[in-house]
Write a structure and sequence with these properties.
Blueprint (H helix, E strand, L loop, with lengths): L11 H8 L26 H7 L10 H22 L4 E4 L21 H9 L5 E5 L6 H6 L6 E8 L24 E6 L5 H18 L3 E6 L16 H14 L3 E5 L5 H4 L4
Parallel strand pairs: 1-6, 2-3, 2-5, 3-4, 5-6
Helix pairs in contact: 3-4
Bound molecules: zinc ion.
Zinc ion (ZN) binds next to loops.
């Protein structure tokens, strides 16, 4: 289990806020105002803090929510350490998910960016590719590594013109500085079938092979499932088995980090 102080993926002021939520705050609170200037000197009022460290109203704050986030981030960190110990395939069933959590803001039910926490541990030992195949764009997994050429970030997701997080996930976002060319977005239209999806996934797998990472992280979202209540793709459960075969065939040490996926009844039946 990691402590708040071990997390270097996020802004220290944001981590201080999350870790300051008192044990007796068991009811959920939501932001009612968002930051319109960026400074922290006078952001001490609870109402101001909630809005300063959030970008939407989907992500409530309570003591238990923040503690669950810390456990979830710890799980991803443990997964990374298991890869470093020589394991070839590790699955971290993280809840809450992480790929929407920005450097200094929560959002999209995400508080800590679990995949990024793992990648930051692994990149000390070699290059890392993160393939995000959640239905939604992994906005902050992209942003944290946007100037980094040691971590390739690739995301297949619903077009931001149609779905959350709306402001990022466009194909034109390719990285910047030395990270230019090391971020790839594949936005897809709603209603995409597994055959159409597969053509794009093969491109992403080629991107990964060309990069030749030492480690691979899969930000695995099952909200691409055809009956997902908040998704909009038409992927079937047998196709997830095909994806698993593709990923295994790459033969990189691989950490799977759970992101979204909300039809738990059907997904629970997968073998
Ligand atoms: Zn999602």
């Amino acid at each position: 289990m990691i402590s708040w102080n071990d997390i270097r993926t996020h802004d220290p002021a944001y981590i201080a806020f999350l870790s300051s939520i008192p044990e007796d705050q068991t009811t959920y609170t939501y932001p009612s105002i968002f930051r319109y200037v960026k400074h922290t000197e006078c952001v001490t009022h609870p109402v101001a803090q909630r809005g300063y460290f959030s970008f939407d109203t989907y992500t409530p704050i309570s003591y238990h929510a923040t503690q669950a986030a810390l456990v979830s981030g710890s799980l991803a960190a443990t997964g990374a350490k298991l890869l470093l110990e020589g394991n070839c395939s590790v699955c971290a069933l993280c809840r809450p998910p992480g790929h929407h959590a920005e450097y200094d803001r929560m959002g999209g039910y995400c508080y800590l960016n679990n995949a990024a926490i793992a990648a930051n541990i692994l990149q000390d030992y070699g290059t890392v590719a993160i393939l995000d195949i959640d239905f939604h764009h992994g906005n902050e997994t992209q942003h944290i590594f946007y100037s980094n050429n040691n971590v390739l970030t690739i995301s297949l997701h619903a077009s931001p013109e149609e779905k959350f997080p709306f402001f990022s996930g466009f194909a034109s976002e390719k990285g910047e500085g030395k990270g230019e060319g090391y971020n790839k977005n594949y936005p897809l239209p709603l209603g995409v079938t597994h055959k159409e999806y597969d053509q794009v996934l093969q491109k992403a797998l080629t991107d990964i092979q060309e990069f030749m990472p030492k480690y691979l992280i899969i930000a695995m979202g099952y909200d691409t499932y055809e009956k997902d209540p908040i998704g909009g793709f038409l992927l079937t459960t047998p196709y997830y088995t095909e994806i698993a075969k593709y990923l295994r065939s790459l033969q990189y040490p691989t950490l799977i980090v759970q992101e979204g996926g909300y039809n738990t009844e059907d997904l629970g039946k997968m073998r």
